[in-house]
Amino acid sequence: MQKTRYIFITGGVSSSLGKGVTVAALGTLLESRGYSVSLQKMDPYINVDPGTMSPYQHGEVYVTDDGAETDLDLGYYERFTNSKLSRKNSVSTGQIYYSVIERERKGDYLGRTVQVVPHITNEIRNRIYTLSRENETDFVIVEIGGTVGDIESVPFLEAIRQMRYEHGASQVMFIHLTLVPTIHAAGEAKTKPTQHSVKELLALGIQPDILICRIQKNMTKEMRNKISLFCNVKDENVISAVDIANSIYEIPQMYKDEKLDEVVLKTLGMDLRKINFSKWESLVKIIRTSKKKVKIALIGKYISLQDAYRSIYEAISHGGIANEANVEVIKLNPEDLDKNNIKDALKGIHGILVPGGFGERGIEGKVAAIHYARTKKIPFLGICLGMQCAVIEFARNELGYKDANSTEFNPKSEHPVISMIEEQMEIEQMGGTMRLGGYPCRILKGSIAFQEYKSEKISERHRHRFEFTLRYKEEFEKKGMKLTGFSPDQNLVEIVEVPSHPWFIGVQFHPEFQSKPTQPHPLFVGLVRESLKLVKKGEE
Ligand code: GLN
């Protein structure tokens, strides 16, 4: 077993340069060369995790199998690599301080003054070492959140500087991802912001080994020379990352063509093992050649924010890849929908997805859309809150309980068909207290779910406080909504379906978290496949 190599990725000049995808794509390439990788995100904010943050602030909350509420970049890590992630792969300033302060209160520091250096930086380093110790991976790739120059990221940068000093350049590497903007009036790409960003890093004692430059068009030789000279980075270690036109799943290929993996291995003095990249090559081929088109509506109140339903969008695109189709996602805000305008709003749509969410806002629009999907026989997938709304819709329109609701939205409803999970009732604290993470589910044979999963036993990730109220089971089943998935103790309803409909399914869990482009999730494959049937029927 070789010693673990640590690769740190920092960001410069601007946020939103795609550091997460870059980390993930580097993971893909190293795995394709037969190395094992573990990926970790360091978030500089003081929240313990993003679980309590609004999607407007933070985008989606990604849930790991062990029930951690994490940054959405972990989703990219799981989609691009085989590395299994847990709560240890997502670290925040809040967590670091929390454990240092807890230890201080216990008296563990034996009277010493507790300081950023060494106590906070040691805690950061420990979180990184834990990963390499536990997984014995060849590479731990760590993404430092934020942009170099932010006050918040200084302790993280100090911790990784120390690691380089201690372990040397053959074990610790720095990659800096920056922006080379094009000034349109001058018609030129400018390297100055990158130079300044590297100077900031140098002031903190970090000399990047590799620069990855986000740039609109391919970098010229002169530009590469200039960046190399000003930033003390070898010519060949200046990698250009040109904007990708089609899909983020082309990014590993793009970095392969730019020889990022080769440069990383060479710089760390490691073998350039043979690459097995065929899986990703065929994926890119499918993405580039798929001709079929299908429209799926996503009905959620955070559609204005690109990242709020990140895993859902990705999982839909995986379903598209599996069916060799281009899926156009039509984003609709449920607050704009009601039973009078729903027909027009959903015109030309071949499938409907209602994702998870919290709070009353937008519920009635979702219920109206689900009613339309159910009665007009449009393929429907409801996820978590989407499943709960399907239950509410069915109770109102088929069971005749006009005020049926979830107690989340109307605690006084006479027909609380969705209600709080009993264990949740005692909980007062907000953070990390929902029913979180992977739980087993048993599927009934003969159901849509069984047809898609081809298995009676599955495990899916959860993030909820409310559930189907079990005493209504018989009434629902009599009227035609079947409960086809349960927790092993039979107490929790995991899946509902309408068998008289071609494909109508609601799931209490979040299938989107386990979908990968190379292993598309069966429910998303099914949704796209069934929606394509509507395209064929010409029901545009
Ligand atoms: N608000 C609902 C609950 O807590 C649904 C949660 C979700 O969609 N993630 O059960």
Question: Segments where pLDDT lies below 50 for 5+ residues?
Answer: none
Shape: globular
| Widest beta sheet: strand line-up | 13-12-14-15-23-22-21-18-19
Total DSSP E strands: 23
Gyration radius from CA atoms, angstroms: 25 Å
- Structural class call reads alpha/beta
Heteromolecules bound: glutamine
SSE layout and pairings?
Elements: E1 5-11, H1 19-32, E2 37-43, H2 55-58, E3 62-63, E4 69-70, H3 73-80, E5 90-92, H4 93-106, H5 116-135, E6 139-144, H6 154-167, E7 172-180, E8 182-183, E9 188-189, H7 192-203, E10 210-215, H8 221-231, E11 238-242, H9 251-257, H10 260-267, H11 278-289, E12 292-299, H12 310-322, E13 325-332, H13 342-345, E14 351-354, H14 363-375, E15 380-383, H15 385-397, E16 405-406, E17 416-420, E18 435-443, H16 448-453, E19 457-464, E20 466-468, H17 473-479, E21 482-486, E22 493-497, E23 504-507, H18 522-537
Parallel strand pairs: 1-6, 1-7, 2-5, 2-6, 7-10, 10-11, 12-13, 12-14, 14-15, 15-23, 16-17
Antiparallel strand pairs: 3-4, 8-9, 17-20, 18-19, 18-21, 21-22, 22-23
Helix pairs in contact: 1-3, 1-9, 4-5, 5-6, 12-18, 14-15
The chain binds glutamine.
Structural features, described:
The protein has two domains: 5-282, Rossmann fold (3-Layer(aba) Sandwich); 290-539, Class I glutamine amidotransferase (GATase) domain (Rossmann fold, 3-Layer(aba) Sandwich), CATH 3.40.50.880. 36% of the residues lie in helices and 21% in strands. The chain has 18 helices and 23 strands. Strands 13-12-14-15-23-22-21-18-19 form a nine-stranded mixed sheet, sandwiched between helices. Helix 14 (363-375) links the parallel strand 14 (351-354) and strand 15 (380-383). Helix 4 packs across helix 5 (116-135).
